[in-house]
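for the writeup, i need someone to sanity check this before i put it in the appendix. the sequnce is what the collaborator sent (i think, or maybe the updated version? ugh). structure was predicted straight from it, no edits. if anything looks off just tell me and ill rerun, i have time this weekend
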Amino acid sequence: MRTKNVIQSAIAELNQVLSLPGLDEASRLSIQARKNELEAELASALDDIHKNILRSHQAICEAKKMGEKEAYGHNPTMYYILGISAECGEMANAVVRAVRNGWDEDKAVAAVRSELADVIIYSYILAHVNDIDLTELVNEKVEIVINRAKSGYYGNKLH
């Protein structure tokens, strides 16, 4: 399974080859055809993060012999909210430990890196078990933030 980033990199490489002087017409046509195939693949590709999180969740559910919209216990919403909270706490504690003896940006980022994926995974699964389209939800919030920025809510108005 190729990720969007891999496909985009391959397209960028082909664009570089296409820009080389002296490329014969047959090679140019062959490269352009391959680029078109990759662009079609890119257009139909799912968001890799979403697909992979759901794959991991499905594997866990299968191993635990539970449905995808279930959780350990009777309330999946509560379970995944508590999971998010716990992972945020672990991330905060990791940052505290990393910078206890003075701020070190590299250690702080490494601490965030150690727990951030767990926060995101629990968030995706929370949305999934509640039939919330996370992409739509995030896009709606992005528009709210942009409109706030345009209105001066965060400081100067955007033009």
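The two ends are 42 Å apart (CA to CA). Residues 105-129 form the longest helix (25 residues).
thx in advance!!
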